[in-house]
Amino acid sequence: MKKKRKISTLLAVLLLIVGLGVLLYPSLSDLYYRWEAEQEIAQYNQVAEATQEDYSDLWAAAEEYNRKLAQGNAFSVAATAEEEAKIEQFLNPLGNGMMGYIDIPKINVHLPIYQGIEEQALQAGVGFWPGTSLPTGGPSTHCVLTAHNGLVRAKMFTDLDQLVEGDTFSLSILDRVLTYEVDQILVTEPDEVDALQIVEGQDYVTLYTCTPYGVNTHRLLVRGHRIETPENVNLGNGAVDIIRTQSGMTVLITLAVVGLLILLFRIWRIFRARKKKQQT
């Protein structure tokens, strides 16, 4: 009888620990992912600031690519693989495929942007869709950036459906910040690309993800048009965000550990009290 009680108590403790782990995993995993992303962004900013490089040649090459793209065939999914090999030389100052980063203040998104939409890039951050305009801004450009929705380990574009017309987001690329205001939100079939085409004279960026959450049968397209960037935008805010994210993660982990210890202590006291009662 005593042995059965001990086993029952141990099972209860294990179930509580597993339950607590399952409950905390999404939040802890997302915080850790954000911390990793902030490190990448901080490194990008540090390199850009330390080198004090003149990026005019990089911008000129990317803008020339965009001009040729606007004069060519319409965007299609089939063109993605063909264009992917061409973009490696553009806007890649660190040599690791990171083009810059995106900020979406309303939904607290601050993520690196990588070349391509292969899974490796999408697991690390936001992917630039080859075959669309490089993120340089300018007339007759339409850049498409895509990220996952509903990953267990990171939120990424999970909250993209919370944006409404008039919200803003910005792209930090090399030494420039490009700001966009949301002007169109669409839900389309996966193979529909009409809304991703270049429009003559317009400067667009579309944020692209799967929808609805957990089902992913359609695609959510949030388009923004270029507006003037506010003067108070700080290119070097990565370090501050890292500190904030690290602090939040430290607090959450500390609370989880303390809570688990308190729980284990209470269970131990109950077990000890029962044992004493049985001995008397």
Using brief descriptors, characterize the structure shown.
transmembrane; membrane; alpha+beta; elongated; Sortase, Chain: A; 8 strands; Sortase_dom-sf; single chain; eight-stranded mixed barrel
Describe this structure in words.
- This protein is α+β, with helices and mostly antiparallel strands and 280 residues long.
- It folds into two domains: 94 residues; 182 residues, Sortase, Chain: A, CATH 2.40.260.
- Helices cover 43% and strands 22% of the residues.
- The protein has five helices and eight strands.
- The protein has an eight-stranded mixed β-barrel with strand order 1-2-3-4-7-8-6-5.
- Helix 4 links the parallel strand 2 and strand 3.
- Helix 1 packs antiparallel against helix 5.
- The longest helix has 50 residues.
- It is elongated, with a radius of gyration of 24 Å.
- The two termini are 17 Å apart.
- About 3% of the residues have low confidence.
- InterPro entries: Sortase, Sortase_C, Sortase_dom-sf.
- This is Class C sortase.
- Keywords: Hydrolase, Membrane, Transmembrane, Transmembrane helix.
Number of domains: 2
> Which bin fits the share of residues in helices?
40-55%
The CATH topology of the largest domain is: Sortase, Chain: A
* CATH level-four homologous superfamily name of the largest domain: Sortase
Strand content: 15-25%
The assembly state of the depicted protein chains is single chain
Query: Nearest-angstrom radius of gyration?
Result: 24 Å
Mean pLDDT: 82
Strands of the biggest beta sheet: in what spatial order? Answer: 1-2-3-4-7-8-6-5
Instruction: Give the SSE string.
Output: HHHEEHEEEEEEH
CATH architecture heading of the largest domain: Beta Barrel
Number of strands: 8
Low-confidence stretches: 235-243
